[in-house]
Amino acid sequence: MTSYVIVKTMRVLFLAFAALSCAALHAQPSQLDLYLMIGQSNMAGRGVAGPEDREPIPGVWAQAKDLSWKPAMDPLHYDKPDIAAVGIGRSFARAVAAARTGGGQVGLIPAAFGGSALDEWKPGSLHYTEAIRRTKAALKNGTLRGILWHQGEADSKDEALARSYVQRFEGFIRQLRADLNAPDVPVVLGELGRFYRNRPNDGAKYAEVVNAQLMKIPDTVPRTAFVSSEGLTDKGDSTHFDTRSLHEFGARYAAAYLKLVSMPTASPVVDNWKASKEFTLAVAQKMPEAEYTFRPVAEEMTFGALMLHIAMAQSIRVAQVAGVTLPIAPPAGRVTKADIMNVLEKSFDFCLATIPKLTSEQLAREHEVNWYEKKSTSGAQIVTAMLVHTAHHRGQAEVYLRLKGIAPPTYRF
């Protein structure tokens, strides 16, 4: 082989290797578990980066400014390029990836913006619109698994803003979930640094009020978790977490997220409750009013009593799980078919309005029931059990119809 041939062969091999390396470098991941990161500077990250913060984590990606994907290395955010640095993203992703048993990859969507107030994240605002745009682009490469939120310093200077935080956050996150077609996506939010209340002479005197509000959010917003900042320290400015604390905070976010996704949710049974309402009302409507007092034997309830029993039992138990006052009452005096139908429909409407709002904590909490040998059970079990209870008595009601020569309505899921 001549030297010319050798050189030419080597050049071809080099170009082929370079092409393969370039393709690998620009290969975009797919089937990512996506996490949207939003809020202000402590989500964007202002910790000083060390060598370990610039080393790729296998299987962890970050969305670049141009919407492509790159290995997740700090800084992840680009809200303020001169100061963006270490945040919670990488330590969160590392912990979540390590907890996965089926493999897969994590994709971080950085969309926080330093200094932004909660009202600057209202639907239609610049930050909100950008977060939606970036997430929808990311969805081409995966599935949205969670939203990470850290914000509130900007709302700590005004008492009215601080005390209305929960109310304003509820509307914001409800619309964000709707616009992302992810009504049940978990949301994890963190406490402001406890050092922030020590800032001198800058008016951030309502930080403790904001923190109290943040802590209440999981009580009112389903599928949310609160992360404590206890013991975490600042970088010397009484505002931003230092690098060590951000690493720890990200791990705490991951622990809260993993606990949250392991808890029950009411979403899978909501469609069953809707079908139960439609079919139960149809059964109740089929029986003529004159037969609402019919019972096949003395030991059984009348048809009308069966319907009222369904209505009150399910409402009482759902109200118990939600921790709210029962909003309906059985009719008094001479009761007509219309009265019973009205209570039955109101009962289903109350349950269907309440169940989707139940938090993971409410569904997991034990509630006293005294059902024969079972003294207590979880909120999730109560929600399911009441479907079974209604089906049981509705089945009795269908037999009552047959005994009167009336064909029950056709069941449909």
User: Structural class of the helix and strand makeup?
Assistant: alpha/beta
Q: Span between N and C termini?
A: 77 Å
The major pleated sheet works out as: 7 strands, mixed
The CATH topology name of the largest domain reads Rossmann fold
Look at the structure and give the CATH class of the largest domain: Alpha Beta
CATH architecture of the largest domain: 3-Layer(aba) Sandwich
Number of domains: 2
CATH 4th-level superfamily of the largest domain:
SGNH hydrolase
What does this structure look like?
Helices cover 47% and strands 12% of the residues. It is of the alpha/beta class and 413 residues long. It has two domains: 28-262, SGNH hydrolase (Rossmann fold), CATH 3.40.50.1110; 267-403, Four Helix Bundle (Hemerythrin (Met), subunit A). Strand 6, helix 7 and strand 7 (224-227) form a beta-alpha-beta unit. Helix 3 runs parallel beside helix 8 (243-262) and helix 6 crosses helix 7 (207-220). The longest helix is centred in the last third of the chain and has 25 residues, at 379-403. The chain is elongated and about 80 Å long.
Per-chain topology:
Blueprint: H1 3-26, E1 32-39, H2 41-44, E2 60-63, E3 69-71, H3 89-99, E4 105-110, H4 126-138, E5 142-150, H5 159-163, H6 165-179, E6 187-190, H7 207-220, E7 224-227, H8 243-262, H9 267-286, H10 303-322, H11 337-354, H12 360-364, E8 366-371, E9 374-378, H13 379-403
Parallel strand pairs: 1-4, 1-5, 2-4, 5-6, 6-7
Antiparallel strand pairs: 2-3, 8-9
Helix pairs in contact: 3-8, 6-7, 9-11, 9-13, 10-11, 10-13
